[in-house]
Amino acid sequence: MAAHLASRLAGIPPTVFSEFSALAVRTGAVNLGQGFPDVDGPSSVVERAVEALRSGANQYAPGTGVPALRRAVAAHQLRHHGIELDPDTEVCVTTGATEGIAAALLALVEPGDEVLVLEPSYDSYDAMIAMAGGVRRAVTLRAPAYRLDAGALRAAVGPRTRLLLLNSPHNPTGTVLTRAELATVAAVAVEHDLLVVTDEVYEHLVFDGAADGHVPLATLPGMRERVLSLSSVGKSWSFTGWKVGWATGPAPLVAAVLAAKQWLTFTSGAPLQPAVAHALEHEHAWPQELARDLQRRRDLLLAGLRGLGLEPRTSEGTYFTVTDVEQLGWADGRAFCLGVAERAGVVAIPLQGFHGPESQDAGRHLVRWAFCKTPEVIEEGLDRLARATLTR
Ligand code: PMP
Ligand code: GLN
Known about the structure:
Layout lengths: L6 H4 L5 H12 L2 E2 L11 H12 L12 H15 L9 E4 L1 H13 L5 E6 L3 H9 L3 E6 L9 H7 L4 E7 L11 H13 L3 E5 L27 E6 H4 L8 E4 L2 H14 L7 H11 L3 H22 L12 E5 L8 H12 L1 E2 L1 E2 L9 H4 L2 E5 L4 H13 L5
Parallel strand pairs: 1-10, 3-4, 3-5, 5-6, 6-7
Antiparallel strand pairs: 2-8, 7-8, 9-12, 11-12
């Protein structure tokens, strides 16, 4: 019998990352698409995971996470951001930030509630808003500056708006919201009594050009009670395959996450949790070093893309930069990415998948490139691009 996909999923396209990583594998292309590093995080953290596996940490962990990791997350929030948390009630370990996003939306959004996102937006947001029965409303960060427009934010809020799903440092643009932009978000949240879920998975991956560095929204006056913050070990410690994340914030919001999480995964991978605790406690300087190194790789990629006739955005954070491929005569980023995989053997990600149906035009000609790869891989990608005909 042919499987009938339920309507809550039928309208959601497959994730663009799987499609383009499969294309990279199939064509032997250099993958400057999906955001995963090609060098793993600190070996001391891997050793802790091996030890945990060998010493019997192999049965269910508590739903909120092992106490050592919850304490380490609380200490991380205090050390880096000055946020004090009770590890027993204000921290919940999740299976990556992806589960945090899913659980938060399922737990906090009523069918018909509007959820505001910054667009282009990470594709799991749209899928999970739809699965939660919510309605996506977007505030577009427009090329070439990709800054938050306070007027557009205010205009997007309506009587059904329940929640703002904020991502900074922002995938895919590399925008890091300034303190002033965050103050606008905070003012709108208070004025309309909105909850805010912040996706801060790139919190440590911020470069010199970010005016205020990464400022967690929860640290702004009046925000602590209405902000649920999400992060994970994946990006900052280069363990994207581990899928260990955390949700932090006021106890009622964290309890809401757990209420959904207990039925999604019940609990997250037990032996990885002590290892992640070790990363947070004993390798807390590691992400800063990674950020310095990433900035050099960003600059390598930016220079190469400029040499090809593109004008990449100088990202202030994350793994990514965005270019407008109309500069090479392409009106459609998807056609460009498919064409370049074929012609040059390099994969990048079209931004159509990060835009809703009503704003496809704003993203049609944009393409995201990842610089979380080794300099050799970036150079190989650039060499291949330089040897191919990239103009339409
Ligand atoms: N949010 C954003 C903005 C991301 O880029 C990613 C990519 N991994 C995630 C969430 C998911 O994080 P995790 O792998 O920890 O689930
Ligand atoms: N966050 C990464 C990206 O944006 C990958 C996540 C994924 O593949 N789902 O490329």
